[in-house]
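Assemble and predict.
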Amino acid sequence: MNEINQEDTHRIIERVARESYGRLVAYLSANTRDVASAEDALSNALVAALTAWPRDGVPQSPEAWLLTAARHSFIDLVRHRQVAEASEPTLRLLRENSMEMTLSAEFPDERLKLLFVCAHPAIDPAMHTPLMLQTVLGLDAARIAHAFLVSPTTMGQRLVRAKTKIRDGGIQFEVPQERELPQRLDAVLEAIYAAFGIGWDDMAGVDQRGRDLSEEAIWLGRVLLELMPGEAEVRGLLALMLHCEARRRARRGPDGRYIPLLEQDSQQWSLPLIEEAEGHLAEAANLGHTGRFQLEAAIQSVHAERARSGRTEWTAVVLFYEQLIRISPTLGTRTGYAAAVAEANGPEAGLAVLDGIDPEDVSAYQPYWAVRAHLLQRLGKTSEAVDAFDRAIGLAEDPAVRQFLLHRRG
Amino acid sequence: MTALKKCKELVTFLKNRSLESALAGIRRCDTGRTRDGVRQIRLLLEISGDFPKSVEWAGSHPSYIQAHKCARNCSQRREADAIRPADLPHSPEEFAMRKNDYSDPHLGAWRAYYKALVEAGVYVGANALEVPETGTTVRLREGKRRVQDGPFADTKEQLAGFIILELPSIDAGLEWAARCPGASIGAVEVRPLAPEAMRRGFTG
């Protein structure tokens, strides 16, 4: 086998790994609840594929091949752990399970259960997103650690602890009952959106790693939609992420300069992404359950409208924010609301909204200070504006944003 | 003496970076402040940068403090009359950028960072060091003094300053480190201060 073919094979393995990782981990751990061993088994299977496939050719059903190899490895792993009492139920489950197993490429998609496990109320909410990124997408701990601004060792330990809890803490692999579904689904959506938000803040267009994480989140959003096509909020989240993604290119000047939304050239926004987002939002509206993510997507949709009409309908933005605050009065929502109110009814009205937020809550919240500085400056309150600008500059992480604010402060 | 003034002495200790002396210095900065019910830990943000020799330093800022009182050939160095922690330099690029002009955006970023730390109620102390070339190193070996020009360790990355913060977790420390203007040019290392009891062991 020559070099090029080998390279092709590696690419195929990469693609299969990416597309099937979550499906295989979910399937392998659904009965045993042992996510960590399922992941180890799959890694072993992938390593085996790297040797076998270039030599013997790519199997007809690569996923089934990986599943078989991973299952063998899984049984070995559990056996070797030598914690008899702990591993016995796992082994039994595996044996029972393998009775029905065939080599067919068809096996149930358990990713939805895995997503609900990752965002289970018994798991620390801060670990929901990292768990999803690792178990469903196969991201390694170091990369997740960078994104979450945690040391790689610490992130690795936290992931192990969370997986042990899944295995030993009686967390069931199941789709929640109707009664608790809204709340449980919200945690899943929240975790996916957190991944997107991290990718979004992470110096868009500058840091490749950051951009990837937003793309991973959109991928997760699509997986979830495939598994729950009838849930309005799932579509709402996807619409929201696509609307933001559509503007990615316009957020930076050719020199890397930060460009705020209002100054972005709307011709640079991606129309196909905007259209896709609008499609999902319309579908969601038909389903008849409004929710937080649909409202946030609706706000982005109003902004996107500028690409067509050339102007922003601020009263519409304000109305959506008012509904959003009723459901989810977070700091981010209230700050966004203040900015929208200022555009619709003048800077004083916006400032009044900001004044209603407890100062204790915003001592380290950068967007609040950026909006406040901007509004004070518009009101001609120069020295107060400089103070607020300093707070916003000091709290900024992105050098481009820092530069932008320094320039604005004058 | 304010905690901030005590921190000046820390620089000497930190410069040679040995744990014991650093700890002794840190102890002096300990103001014993805690917040209602929340266990606070103190973190040392060490700001360092790449110091290639080819860069011409522009670091003659009046707020740099005297780093080596003890070194004999370091007779009359500038002493800061007022410490401005926001003026921490941390890499040659930054030294090169630095002007004595206070409208300099680079200084603006540092001052804003300092203000944000203070307003968030996490700031304990900070200071900046002169460029490593200005260092003089003292060793006692077999009873003999050895004085050497230049920094303690001739590595690419050199300690350029430090900030002490009081925060609930290392995670919060990393967050503040990422916001530090030095993080995008040099590096910011975050470390917890040693436990109180251990620090006391060094200082009595």
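Confidence is low (pLDDT under 50) at residues 1-39, 49-90 of chain B.
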